[in-house]
Each structure stands twice: as structure tokens, then as C-alpha cells.
């Protein structure tokens, strides 16, 4: 079974996940753009269980459809490493950049594509959604 560890920039906060990704994609929503300081976020879902090492500061944001997402970031370096959806403990969303693995597969879908910066080119074969599909 594949085991991966994602860590913040300073290494204080990490999460270890097991198995293959349940799915991975790009989010172009304005909240992810603001949260990451980039023009999109790249995330991968992994099934529970997972192990967290270190201390996290949390920020809860309510999504467009009312779901509440708990973002976990390092209180020292500020890197957002993972997030969960309140009330759903079956999986965790990990920031792909924190995996530090250039061989990680390309995204499968792109959500909030209506907010994508026009100069951002998506990989061939990716499914794009104007908003978040439910």
C-alpha cells in the first residue's frame, strides 16, 4: 500500500495518508485563490485513516452550498497542508504541493473553472466544471 506524507514548509506540521488518491483536482474559486496566494489550489482526496503530526491552526470557511471546511495550516510558516469537511470523516483533502512529489499524477478535474485566469491552461483530458458539482 502506498503511503505519502505531506508537510508544511518548515516541517512542523505533516499528515500521512495511505493508499491511492480517491481523486485529485484543481479549484479556481476565489476563496482558494486567496487562501493559497496563487491562482488555483491543487488538492487530492485520501481515505481515512490518516495521521497528523505537529500543531495546526485552523480556519473554518463555509462553501457556496453551505458545507463547512476546516483548513489546517502551520502556525509557524503558514502553509495550508490539509482540510476536512465538517461532519464527513471518511476522507481528507491534502494540498498536492505539500506532498513535494513532482511525479504525482495530473489533476482529473477543474472546479470553479468560471473563475480560472484565462492564461492558465488545463491538461488535456481534464473535466472542467463552471462551479463545484454536487
TrEMBL record:
One of the record's GO molecular function terms: metal ion binding
UniProt xrefs under InterPro entries: CENP-V/GFA, Mss4-like_sf
The UniProt record lists the keyword Lyase: yes
UniProt key word Chaperone: no
Domain CENP-V/GFA: 4-113
Residue ranges the record marks as coiled coil: none
Family classification: Belongs to the Gfa family.
Record's protein name: Uncharacterized conserved protein
Amino acid at each position: 500500500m502506498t503511503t505519502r506524507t505531506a508537510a508544511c514548509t518548515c516541517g512542523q506540521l505533516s499528515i500521512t495518508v495511505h493508499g491511492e488518491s480517491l481523486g485529485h483536482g484543481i479549484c479556481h474559486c476565489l476563496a482558494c485563490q486567496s487562501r493559497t496566494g496563487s491562482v488555483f489550489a491543487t488538492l487530492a482526496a485520501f481515505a481515512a485513516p490518516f495521521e497528523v503530526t505537529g500543531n495546526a491552526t485552523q480556519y473554518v470557511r463555509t462553501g457556496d452550498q453551505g458545507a463547512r471546511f476546516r483548513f489546517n495550516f502551520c502556525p509557524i510558516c503558514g502553509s495550508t497542508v490539509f482540510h476536512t469537511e465538517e461532519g464527513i470523516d471518511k476522507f481528507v483533502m491534502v494540498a498536492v504541493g505539500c506532498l513535494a512529489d513532482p511525479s504525482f499524477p495530473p489533476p482529473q478535474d477543474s472546479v470553479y473553472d468560471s473563475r480560472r485566469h484565462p492564461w492558465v491552461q488545463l491538461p488535456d483530458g481534464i473535466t472542467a466544471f463552471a462551479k463545484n458539482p454536487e
